[in-house]
Structure of ANTAR domain-containing protein:
Amino acid sequence: MRNREKWVADTLVELADTLVPAFDPENYWLCVADRYQQLVPLSSISLVADSRQAAQPIVVNTDERLGTPEMTGLLAEEGPGIDCRTGGHIVNVRLDDVPVRWEKLVPAALSLGYLSVHAFPIRRRLDVLGTVTILTTGTVHLPTADVLIADALADVAATAMLNHHAITELTRTTTQLQGALSSRVIIEQAKGLVSARLEIDPSAAFLLLRRYARGHNQRIGALCEQLVARRMTVSELVAAVPKHVTGQGRRR
């Protein structure tokens, strides 16, 4: 890597930018995995991240050999990714020095030519979104500088994704509140229209609207929209409701 400092700066800016139109989480995590592969030469990346849109996590592999059913299953059952996520610590070891509990993954990885393995939690404080597992053909541990950069990339990615989730949820809530407010305004307008036309109290007008909506299996908001938009008249409303209802609350 010729200009390491520029690469780090560009990568951090790129990974931090999740507040864009039509943001795609899968493409984002693919970009994250690609950046890790650029950071660590002769490496293959397996990234697993939680998905808010689906029950299954997002899995990204930069090497098709890691995407086979056997390797996918092994990486999901044991290995650095599992230890990293449950323990919250970085893994940076040679395969011949790994714990005995990785008894299935180690021979499988060695058979593919990998000699070292590294893993980083994708987390922000107590929120763990996933892990990045790096398998390399080198026999040495990652240098301290690379470990720090790799850990920083994971932290930035976690923060950026959590920000995306927060903004998405805020937008959804705002839209729902705006919809509820608009619906309430329309209902009040319809109540006023019916109240004035029939010379009844607003509470009686609302009762009339509610009775009609229930009797016709219709949302009261949709009914009020019809009245306010003049797609339905008050006379049509009254004609479909029993007389004892329309007579209630008449102004003196």
Observations:
- The mean pLDDT is 88.
- Strands lie at 43-49, 58-61, 91-94, 116-124, 127-136.
